[in-house]
TrEMBL record:
This is ABC transporter substrate binding protein. It holds the Pfam family ABC_sub_bind. Coiled coil: none annotated. NCBIfam families: ABC_SBP_TrpX. CDD domains: PBP1_ABC_unchar_transporter.
């Protein structure tokens, strides 16, 4: 009798174990299928400042517009905080974590990701000169695993606006980072467009944010106004630039809308959020099956004037009615 009870207990235990193992296998299979349907996206942002933060916000909204939100997308977000060594290690981390696609916000991030993988699709977010940065060879026909969105700065329109708002400006001081490829190409174009408007340009390159304060003092002594390219190093220390220019009572013409809001006088700019939105949508389409080689680099090259009326009033600068009428609200 005891043997029968023991046998029955053993059989019941064995049945329970089989049920538990079957459930575990089912649960793992279910989890695996769930993960297979989830878009695993790695995002690397070069540094924290409002313009790049706006791009990332746009990326998430662009994904959402394409149906990727909630459990349908898992974003691994890393920020190098302007440290080039972190760009390399974080790029490799995102690759090692088997993300389906990678987004690099700003040129150094896109370059880091492109160097870390030749198989995972890389989508550039806000890279001004993709060819000069050696990310693609042909904007219309990318031949590798990299494509994305380019924010072509409307430099000619910026030089024209500068001449319209501040006709007495003769010498423009240009502040930029010597380590950012995008900045160098923008400065060369600005020199050409400014010369066509009768403006003299003086260049001031800094290796890091540590030199911005002293460099601004020298720049402002020899210049009537300041022009800034799309430059992440300068943007991350923009309050220092604003403080120096405000003290010298001289106008700043940035290339980013958020920097006009933060103390610049005016610019003709491409909206950073819209850049992010386009980046997110492109990433989603590639994940849905569109090939990188069939996805041309999308170029934003049209901008709108944006004016900081408070700064204009402080500097006693009159804004023509036609400029106000055409400016972004």
């Amino acid at each position: 009798m005891k043997n029968k009870r023991l046998l029955a207990s053993l059989l019941a235990l064995a049945a329970l174990i089989v049920i538990l193992l079957a459930y575990q296998a089912y649960d793992q299979s279910k989890q695996k299928n769930s993960n297979a349907n989830t878009f695993k996206l790695g995002v690397l942002q070069y540094v924290s400042h409002e313009a790049l933060d706006e791009i990332y916000r746009g990326v998430k909204d662009g994904l959402k517009k394409e149906g990727y939100s909630g459990k349908k997308v898992k974003i691994e977000f890393l920020n190098a905080e302007g440290d080039q060594s972190k760009v390399q290690t974080m790029s490799q981390t995102l690759v090692n974590h088997n993300n389906d696609l990678l987004i690099g916000i700003a040129t150094p991030s896109a370059q880091g990701l492109a160097s870390a993988t030749k198989s995972i699709p890389v989508v550039m977010g806000a890279v001004t000169d993709p060819v000069g940065a050696k990310l693609v060879k042909n904007l219309k026909k990318p031949d590798g695993n990299v494509t994305g969105v380019s924010d072509k700065t409307p430099i000619a329109a910026q030089a024209k606006l500068m001449k319209t708002l501040t006709p007495n400006v003769k010498t423009v001081g240009v502040l930029y980072s010597s380590s950012e490829d995008n900045s160098k190409s923008q400065v060369e174009e600005f020199k050409q467009k400014a010369k066509e408007k009768g403006l003299k340009v003086s260049e001031y390159a800094v290796p890091s944010t540590n030199e911005i304060s002293t460099t601004m003092n020298v720049l402002l002594e020899k210049s009537d106004a300041v022009w800034l390219p799309l430059d992440n190093t300068i943007a991350s220390a923009f309050p220092t630039v604003v403080s120096a220019a405000k003290k010298a009572k001289k106008p700043i013409y940035p290339s980013v809308d958020t920097m006009v809001d933060q103390g610049g006088l005016a610019s003709v700019v491409v909206n950073q959020y819209e850049l992010g939105l386009a980046t997110g949508k492109m990433a989603a389409k590639i994940h849905k099956g569109q090939k990188v080689t069939d996805t041309p680099v999308y170029i934003f090259d049209k901008g709108k004037p944006i004016i900081n009326k408070k700064v204009a009033k402080t500097l006693d600068i009159n804004i023509p009615a036609e400029v106000l009428k055409s400016s972004a609200k």
